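Recall the central idea of this unit: under ordinary conditions, the amino acid sequence of a chain determines the structure it adopts. In this exercise we apply that idea directly, starting from the sequence alone.
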Amino acid sequence: MKAAVLREVRTPLQIEEVQISKPGPHEVLVRTVAAGLCHSDLHFIEGSYPHPLPAVLGHESAGIVEQVGSEVRTVRPGDHVITCLSAYCGHCDHCLTGHLSLCVSPDTKRDAAQTSRITQHGRPLPQFLNLSSFAEQMLIHEHACVAVRKDMPLDRAALIGCAVITGVGAVIHTSNVRPGETVAVIGCGGVGLAAINGAAIAGASRIIAVDMAPSKAELAKAVGATDFIDASSADPVAAVLELTKGGVLHAFEAIGRTKTVEQAFAMLQRGGTANIIGMIAPGEMLSLPGAAFLGERRLQGSLMGSNRFPIDMPRLVDFYLSGQLKLDHLISRRIRLEDVNEGFEAMKSGGLARSVIMFD
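Accordingly, the structure predicted from this sequence is:
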């Protein structure tokens, strides 16, 4: 099968032929229909985060089940599925207390004695984030996907697999936004736009979008923002404090930079919570005023929206089909697998929401 392989950091992905194994007892073979380009992939391409190479990248996807292992009970051939990198074992402390996104059990992976799920010329290729979805097929653990309604378009469904579950989940689960509360979102890429949309669904009374690109204003408002701050021409902290007369109750940083995390914390009113959704590079440190914590301001991380994806994703599909989740606005363009490098170059410009690879 064809796949986009990263051989060295800071080099273009190569479209190559790789081989995929047969499903083990708890594994599912999925024909990939759509895969979104996420900034997290770009972090690995640029070497900000380490990963064994060569590897097939991609982790935001949807497809159709082709085969299942002998013990699989959650999906069956022909099912339309959304994948999730938060593969969970179902029996560790995290899983049993309802924190599926925190599971790190090795039970969802093949061990060293088994044939690798992906190989090339007989050599194993490490699977990327439990998925490796920049490929025509995926071989994954059954707890890395969930079946959804077949009337859901799979290009939009793919976005739910990362950007949407991360942004909406951070709002609904991690920060528990309630009707009438105030929200600021820094960064209007795919994840930030999903957080804005999630805040609107949650009933937030004021949703302030912040971005360096003024062209994002219309898009942010289309998915639920009440206000837009152009951070290239105004101090976003001062602007938020002025708009809200004292700060927001929930702030979400969806870029992954220390400066914008510090800004998110500075935007809070007393008792407010700042949520880090973006991926801050390893080794980077934050600087926050200690006295601010006396006002019961909080700073917390959010991993994949604190999701319970087997429940959350079908519900998000329902939200889309009922018109509340604005996924159509998140797709800037649809591309071929061969155009993946061009898609990442476009991402760097900052003017797009999401590019989605469509497979034949």
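The two ends are 12 Å apart (CA to CA).
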